[in-house]
Specification:
The structure is a single chain. This protein is mostly helical. It has one domain. The protein is 83% helix and 0% strand. The protein has 2 helices and no strands. It starts with 10 loop residues before the first helix and ends with a helix. It comes from Nyctereutes procyonoides. This is (raccoon dog) hypothetical protein. Belongs to the MORF4 family-associated protein family. Pfam families: MRFAP1.
Length: 82
Amino acid sequence: MQPLVITKQSELEKVEALVSKEDFKQFLLPVIRKMQEDVTSCTQVQRRVYMQNRSKLWKVDSLLIQIKTHVKASEESTLDHL
């Protein structure tokens, strides 16, 4: 087994190894924009589905009120005939 040899890097080599902020931003900004678009799209879809479901519930509620009104009217007319 050979001994591990540790050498010091010069300051210049250390600086070159760092990633510049511009490169990092150029990489991340498109990703962040795409994520924002995806979140916006999901939010719009959820809002649309919520409104569709709410609309359906209003229709069902309206139908139930109509049925209840018809049943009540039928009961009253039946009692009037007795």
